[in-house]
Target: DUF721 domain-containing protein
Amino acid sequence: MNQNKYFPGRKKEAAPLEEAFQELLKAYRLEDKFKEKSLIHDWGELVGKTISDRTESVFIRQNKLFVKISSGPIKRELQMSRSKIMGLIEEKYGKELIEEIVFL
Model:
C-alpha cells in the first residue's frame, strides 16, 4: 500500500528534496516561472564576470530575454554571439524557455 493513513494522497516513502520540489512546481504549474527566475539569477555564471559586471539589468517578457548592457563594445560582441548564448540557455533550461535575446 502506497498511502499513508494519516495523510491520504501523500506518498509513504521519502522523496529526495529536489524530486519533491520538482513535483511541487509541476503541481502548481510554476516550472517555467522558476526556470525564468533561475536564468536571470544565473546570467553572470552563464556569460562570465566581465559581461556580468557590465550588465545593468536582465528580465524576461513573453519568452524574450532582455539584457541591458552598459558597454557598447561588449553589447556588439554579445549581439554577434547571440546564437552561442542561446545554445547555453537551451542546454541548461530547455528550448522552450527563451525564443529571442534582445540586448539593450
Q: What stands out?
A: Helices lie at 17-27, 31-47, 49-53, 72-80, 82-93.
